[in-house]
Amino acid sequence: MPNPKDFSQIIPPHGGYRELQSYKMAEIVYDATVAFCDSFIDCRSRTHDQMVQAARSGVQNIAEGSMASATSKKMELKLTGVARASLEELLLDYQAFLRQNGLRIWAKDSPEALAVRKKYQSDSSDKSDVSDPYSLKTATPEVAANTLICLINQASYLLGRQLQGLEQQFLKEGGFTERLYRARSQMRNGGKKT
Predict the structure, then answer these.
(1) How does DSSP assign 86-151, residue by residue?
(2) Which of 13, 15, 30, 106 could make an SS bond with 110 (beta carbons 3.0 to 4.6 A apart)?
(3) Does 4 map to a domain?
(4) Percent of the chain whose pLDDT exceeds 70
(5) pTM of the complete model
């Protein structure tokens, strides 16, 4: 009887989404969106609910995709894509908020946008208020919305890179069904790799 340890792992390690930079950034966007909407969007407005739900969807789909990766790379790819699409919907809402309120939309290379990106990328940034690292609770609507646009763009960039990595991993290793087939073939061949 072949030793089961000789077979490649059928159910690979999965989960671990809390360590993903994309998840961490999406979580910041979600928490900040709740604060933004509570401060600047009428709580009875459909937009309030939709923005919060789009932000939540970004976070939840990253987590769900990571957990689903145990048995479905296809599902992980799909849900990671859904997370990115949800954040794109949220991005459009922030841009609409600024436009409809006659507020300035920062250019990608504006000093303000560069400062937000620098703060995100800096390991030594001020962490004195962990619950509000980008000072959004005291920001004007223009600064808060533009800061969130920068953070959403960062999260979307990270998710794009994650999708590329998942695609390459799938092409290299295959999916769950292929692993099952290889393991079963090995078992039938007395533990010899096929």
Answers:
(1) HHHHHHHHHHHHHHHTTPPPPPTTSHHHHHHHHHHH-TTS--S-TT-TT--TTS-HHHHHHHHHHH
(2) 106
(3) no
(4) 79
(5) 0.81
**Rounded (5°) CA angle 166-167-169:** 65
Nearest to 84 by CA among 171, 167, 152, 15: 152
pLDDT in tens, 147-181: 999 999 999 999 999 999 988 887 777 666 666 56
Residue 165 lies in a domain: yes
In angstroms, the CA 102 to CA 121 distance is: 30
Question: What's the alpha-carbon Rg for the chain, to the nearest Å?
Answer: 21
Does residue 126 form part of some domain? Answer: no
Residue 78 lies in a domain: yes
Full residue range of the structural domain in which residue 31 is found:
14-119+134-188
